[in-house]
Design a protein that fits this description.
The chain has 294 residues and is an alpha/beta fold. It contains eight helices and nine strands. The strands form four sheets. Strands 3-4-7 form a three-stranded antiparallel β-sheet. Strands 1-2 form a two-stranded parallel sheet. Helix 1 packs across helix 8. The chain starts with 16 loop residues before the first strand and ends with a helix.
Amino acid sequence: MNPPLPSGRPVPPAKYRGRIAPSPTGWLHAGHARTFTVAWKRAEDSGGTCILRMEDLDTDRRKPEYTAAVYEDLAWLGLRWAEGPDTGGPHAPYTQSERMDIYRRQWKALRDSGCIYPSPHSRKDVRGALSAPHEGANESVFPPRLRPPPGTGRKTPEPGSVNWRFRVPDGRVIRFTDGRCGETAYTAGQDFGDFVVWRKDGFPSYEFAVVVDDHLMEISEVVRGEDLLRSTARQLLLYEALGWRAPAWYHCELVCDAEGRRLAKRTEAQSLRGIRKAGMDPVALRVSLFAPKR
């Protein structure tokens, strides 16, 4: 029998802590508006705290104008936060690029435990680890035959210029309960393979950084889009490896375009910036986002 994972809390604790975690790599769109509003409202309804964290580790795509637009768009939506890059707080810094020493310490913990190993395969790994892996994307499962022997890399003092992968337990079923999607399960080695936790460009991957941040910032429930549902299975393995208890999970329904595709940050036309310029009232937008489907 598989040892139990540190499963997400089915009921958030009395002191609820949620987070809004935008990435300044493009204009926020209606999908972000729905997810961030849900995150903020669940914190408000629980009498808890909502924080803002800027996830800016994609150095190739982040831009100052996108960061400025995040604050403008969230303020326009009427969302507020108790802690964040602009307000400070007990868990500062709240910008990921300023937390590199924190990530290195936890990388060393994984290295010492033998859960990760240096991997030279392949150039696509860095691009794939730059941002969150979305459900439905064509994901190649890393071939186990390319794994080095156990213990490889344990004496390596720094991550260096090579990818570091988490060694997943092949065949293990990762089960968790999502606040909206219900009972969910993925099989390691089948639904996903060894994944990158540290990129060869010198930055932690999305999977690793958010686990470290959510734990150290004492997040009790993670609210995000359901395109990141599979990421929860990977992240539960990281929580287990680091000896941490996982938060509760709530994956929101996605907002799609007329063709049924998940909204992207590429065009301003479908962005909150574009919606604002068109003169739409934020209350009307929220009503439309949460109106029952016909």
